[in-house]
Amino acid sequence: MNHLQISDLTVAYRVGGHTVPAVRGVDLTVPAGGKLGVAGESGCGKSTVALAVLRLLPANATVTGRVLLDGEDVLTMRWGRLRAVRWAGASIVFQGAMHSLNAVHRVGDQITEPILLHGKGAITPAVAERRAGDLLEQVGLPAHQAAAYPHELSGGQRQRVMIAMALACEPRLIIADEPTTALDVMIQAQILRLIDGLVTEHGIALMMISHDLSVLADTCDRLAVMYAGRVVEEGPARTVFATAVHPYAAALGAAFPTVGDPAARRAPRGLAGDPPDPAQLEGGCSFCPRCPRAVAECARVDPALRPAGPDRAAACILVPPGGPSPRSLRASAAEVPAAPEGRRR
Ligand SMILES: Nc1ncnc2c1ncn2[C@@H]1O[C@H](COP(=O)(O)OP(=O)(O)OP(=O)(O)O)[C@@H](O)[C@H]1O
Ligand code: SF4
Ligand SMILES: [Mg+2]
């Protein structure tokens, strides 16, 4: 059975009398023990999807669709059941651990709290403390760091504590929402390896959110690329990264200079412009204003996801039924435009 099945999820935020359609008809699946990467630029709705999975959205959000966790719809669950599912069914590692940890409690107490709550009296404080120490060691911290307050730890150590908390109640799904933002590249790599290793070892399903397609291609089995609140391409992670079908996914994958390639450093291929403000979306394909391959019809038609080859789908009118040929895939990967001067990194 799929551990997580999101169907036709829409989320709209109400802000100052108008509506922001942040997520528009998203379908995503993570099988038990599977790893799904979700990529996309800032504001495309990745965190909104993550928060919807555990019904953590703020009161100004209206949600429709279905979010099945092990077959149970999170969106219609009673509060008591929802409390049981949070942590034990699925847990989240948020971006920015300093904001997620409580500054006035020792980190060990923050790890034991859900263990004791979910143990419902069957677990003693001493057992929970031992488990917190074990969890800290699993994430590469000495058990005595349980006595530390968050401000006494480095950013990387705090993020390790967040991962220990996410593991505390042995969930079947972990959602990692940009778990390495604000960490230096060496620590980023360590944290990603740590999450990858732990979910593999424990057979936990993973939904990993990042801007960085290459990181997701390394870590995940499948990759979904979001744009303006929609999934625009989904398929096997390495295939989508190497030969994206959707022009946005192709540009996102090419938006980084190749390490060791001086030519790529001088002229990294990138993406001009910015994603649309969801409150100002017009008809047609939302990527049209930035798309190097747009044709007249793109301003009128908002394409749905359609099959784009074996086991993959893309939302672009240029995708022929049954998917493009391998030759055209290689050609479209090479067509990604150079970034305008002002936006080169
Ligand atoms: N609480 C809120 N109230 C109103 N609008 C919101 C709220 N939270 C998010 N939004 C809007 O919803 C859209 C999607 O935001 P979201 O945080 O899901 O994007 P994201 O893909 O996670 O971006 P990032 O990569 O920057 O984290 C954005 O336009 C954002 O401004
Ligand atoms: S539908 Fe048109 S504008 Fe949208 S991604 Fe495809 S080619 Fe580009
Ligand atoms: Mg986010």
The count of DSSP E runs of length 2 or more, i.e. the number of strands, is 12
**Per DSSP, what share of the residues sits in E-state strands of 2 or more residues?**
15-25%
Using the alpha-carbon principal axes, give the shape: globular
Distinct helical segment count? 12
| Through-space gap between termini | 43 Å
Bound molecules: adenosine-5'-triphosphate, iron/sulfur cluster, magnesium ion
Helicity, as a percent range: 25-40%
Structural class, judged by helices and strands?
Answer: alpha/beta
Explained architecture:
The chain is an alpha/beta fold and 345 residues long. It has a domain of 99 residues. 33% of the residues lie in helices and 22% in strands. The chain is built from 12 helices and 12 strands. Helix 4 crosses helix 5, helix 5 crosses helix 6 and helix 6 packs parallel to helix 7. Iron/sulfur cluster binds next to loops.
